[in-house]
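Q: For a teaching handout, I want to show students what a protein-ligand complex looks like in token form. Below are the inputs, and the small molecule is pyridoxal-5'-phosphate. Please produce the holo structure.
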Amino acid sequence: MIIGLIRQGSDIMKNRKIDFRSDTVTRPSPEMREVIFRAEVGDDVFGDDPTLNLLQEKTAELFRKDAGLFVPSGTMSNQVALNTLSEPGWEIICERECHIVNYETGGPAVHSSLMINMLTTERGVMTAEEIEASVRPANIHIPITKIVTIENTHNGHGGTIYPLEEIKKIRKVADKHNLLMHLDGARIWNAHVATGIPLSDWVAPFDSASVCFSKGLGAPIGSMILGSRNFIERARRNRKLFGGAMRQVGIIASAVIYALDNNIKRLAEDHINAKLLAEGLNDIDGFDIDLSRVQTNIIIADISGTNKGSNEVSSVLEENGVLSVPFGPTKIRFVTHLDVSREECEKAIDIISGLKF
Ligand SMILES: *Cc1c(COP(=O)(O)O)cnc(C)c1O
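A: Here is the structure, written as tokens, with pyridoxal-5'-phosphate included.
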């Protein structure tokens, strides 16, 4: 009965725009809402929410880390993790286009008094050699390099996958120089599905990891910090400090458990759809896509060839029923996800091919 009503509601959305703005726009399916409806809950600040406890155990087990801590957003999970790892004044090494530096409102400076050393890369991959060359010498004048952050897949570089072999080499450099490693694995699920490498292998080299449930997995809210038991205990205190401790959070955790059980493998469809869309867009005059970067569910189209700016091109697409986001002055980002079908990707190519710029 509930599902029936929700289905009726979603039929009204039939003529909605094709939404490639982000994999965060996915809405809970009727089945997910049914699970939310039945969720057993308690007060998580007392550690009493059985559904959340189950989710934290289940996720830690999936990644083979000691423990997990649920937080409301990926930004909070990166920031609480960094705050828990660090001391004020430490320097952290980050890739120039990464989320932690560009899309978290200056969080490392505001919350944790961290210095950032940004390395410029071609595809989001800082090599072990580049990182080693950036470690500061010990000297009372100079900040202390203490943390390396890695983003996988890399959003700013178009959903590119960080090679695991390189991450392992970076771990060796980190051990040699006494550095900690944090993974921004908001889309680690996509790297896992695209490569077949287990989730646990992807996070094993890291002291802490952040993973998001509200992107491709389609849960409405939430991320998780993973790490050792001691680290997670300290992160739990910091989550309270940041205002992120919640009460009957099983309402959300139930949806996340549903997403973990049902929506990981299907990410492969998003990757196939992204390739299809990328190839179609690349054939359109004025659109240029580096197809070798389309490794998961993100497409960055260079629209310089239209002689228009990205805001204008994105607006024209929107007027014609296709949503995207401007990504710098000459680029537009498209993201595939569980709320856009193959047919909609084909339809979008048709629509955009018919436009005059
Ligand atoms: C989305 C995202 C986050 C988290 O962002 P929120 O908006 O806080 O959920 C973190 N890192 C990367 C790489 C992301 O794409």
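A: Two things your students might notice: The CA atoms of residues 276 and 282 lie 10 Å apart. Residues 267-282 form the longest helix (16 residues).
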